[in-house]
Amino acid sequence: MAIYSPTSALVLHDIGSPLKLENITLASLQPNEAIVEIHATGICHTDLSCMSGVLPAATPNVLGHEGAGIVREIGSGVSHVASGDKVLLSYNFCASCESCIADHPAYCAHFVPLNFGGSRPDGSLCLKGTQDEDIHSNFFGQSSFSRHAIVAANSMVKVPADTDLRLYAPLGCGLQTGAGAVLNSLGVTKGSSLAVWGVGPVGLAAVMAGVIAGAKAIIAIDLQPARLELAKSLGATHTLDGGDENVVQKVVELSKSNGVNFAVDCTGVPKVVENMIHSLGTKGRGCTVGAPKPGAVASIDIFAHLIHGREYIGSTEGDCVPSKMIPFLIEQHKEGRFPLEKMIKYYEVKNFEQAFTDMAAAKTVKPVLVW
């Protein structure tokens, strides 16, 4: 076995239990896989949701889906990267279903099993624990809460050799989701109004994307004053307290019309979704990227929705093609239009417990584990 196996990883043994930093062993590669030496991994709210049971996850498991690292070995079927290449990791997709062929891989017909199934497509597991027990992985095709990870070919995006892996690791999920919701799913136009409901890392990426799109009014809504201040520094023109009982009315007033042109919900909270829809003006378009527990339901005023011609859609991964969106966001950052460093705090992997605690307590907007 190569020098990277055994390696270390954060293992979730039971839903609701803390992660443990342990040694694991990697299986041999399949043709469509690579071994990536992970240098940094962003912590996403989806990781927390799987750890707590809000979203499905088999145990024991290695999570993590905003990885960045260097390719150390490739399978025989991998051709777009080579050993030694730097890569950012994103979600997995089949590349052959109707949605993938139409350039919408975020809506892959096999998205759930490929990203949440906990195993390879053939059902096999590729990690072993210290007692030779099987460990689920392949989370978003990567399970990058690990020093070395077996990564699906479609989850890898090659980036230039001078790429700062620590800085750009979060682009693979949360930040491309927020940016893509604005630029792809909503299609925010120059001079329009945009309301962002919930300005955690995804919402802050949406705010920055609103600036890129040329929105004239960008209204950030949240319960955390510090995050509203951060949103303002990233381009929000107005901020509102999400707990204000008149928040919808205030959003409408700030739109200078009968409601905003565009809105994005980054919370998945039914009441927030309802408020977002109610804040839309004529022909207003809103979307949700926040993922609640399956079965959550929001209600709408059907007549108001009808007469105003409103639209409400869902948005997975911001409808992004990672191989296109990730290089685009890197370029936008270099031009000073996507200053993601303002929301990031780095933690050595030995301090992972503090990173998760700080994120859960909203002390850190975007923690990144450095391996």
Automatic annotation (TrEMBL):
Domain Enoyl reductase (ER): 16-369
Keyword field: Metal-binding, Oxidoreductase, Zinc
GO MF, one annotated term: oxidoreductase activity
Cofactor requirement: Zn(2+)
InterPro entries: ADH-like_C, ADH-like_N, ADH_Zn_CS, ER, GroES-like_sf, NAD(P)-bd_dom_sf
Top-level taxonomic group: Eukaryota
SMART domains referenced in this protein's UniProt entry, alphabetically: PKS_ER (SM00829)
Membrane spanning residue stretches: none
Family listed: Belongs to the zinc-containing alcohol dehydrogenase family.
PANTHER family reported in the protein's UniProt record: ENOYL REDUCTASE (ER) DOMAIN-CONTAINING PROTEIN, NAD-DEPENDENT ALCOHOL DEHYDROGENASE
The name this protein goes by in its record: Alcohol dehydrogenase
